[in-house]
């Protein structure tokens, strides 16, 4: 049942702003992608890339938010970070799945979340090349375009299709590969989509049974986490802890717990 708080005018306004910002950024990214798109800069390693389009998308979103919600704070992947005075903070990933975008693969998204008092109120994950927009409002459910989303009921662990992702630094990847080596023989299969935001939405839409990853940043998971939770998923980090850069786990009740326990046992939360 929809929580009456989901009807509050602030949430409705934040959702409308997030949807419009994501739509505009998505249009820029889809129509403005140069054929010879290259790497503009690197971050944590030589394969952690930024393109000119990540920067242009963040600029567009930041300018739009400044116009519509001038008193809010913003935290963005490509460096924008400031506090506002309204108590609302936007958490934005101008392209989640940059490597997919660079290679012309479809799984990339604009991810925009609005938080207040430590809670994510609204999340939008717009994936133009998939022609899909996911959104969620705290207490108001999750949707793919207009369709309400519900997670797939938990299968037995050995029949689960599990999504995951890898960091950009070799030492971390070596450890992540070790966890996958142990998990793969125990489950139906593993998927590595390349966008954490879309992976979380895929859990919400029943396209994955569950998802986990170590090393995400708030802009990777803020919007997708709300979409997954509002579709009925449990999300968290290590047992008893909130999801964080250390570990992100999402899945339906009945699968979330054994997956989280497996990841704890294998030390998937450290390098
Ligand atoms: C990355 C994607 C990827 C995940 C990485 C993230 P970016 O975000 O979400 O799926 O495995 O950990 O850094 O760099 O494309 O915004």
In short:
The chain is of the alpha+beta class.
- What is the gyration radius calculated from CA atoms? 18 Å
Question: In which order are the strands of the major sheet placed?
Answer: 4-3-5-6-7-8-9-10
Coarse structural class: alpha+beta
**Average pLDDT rating:** 96
Give the CATH architecture of the largest domain: 2-Layer Sandwich
Q: What percent strand?
A: 25-35%
Low-confidence stretches: none
Number of H- or I-type helical stretches: 7
CATH topological fold name of the largest domain: Fructose-1,6-Bisphosphatase, Chain A, domain 1
Q: Give helix and strand order, one letter per element, not per position.
A: HEEHEEEHEEEEEEHEHEHEEH
CATH superfamily of the largest domain: Fructose-1,6-Bisphosphatase, subunit A, domain 1
Envelope shape: globular
Bound molecules: D-MYO-inositol-1-phosphate
- Per DSSP E runs of 2 or more residues, the count of β-strands stands at 15
Q: Number of folding domains? A: 2
Please report the first level of CATH classification, the CATH class of the largest domain: Alpha Beta
Tell me the distance between the termini. 41 Å
Largest sheet: 8 strands, mixed
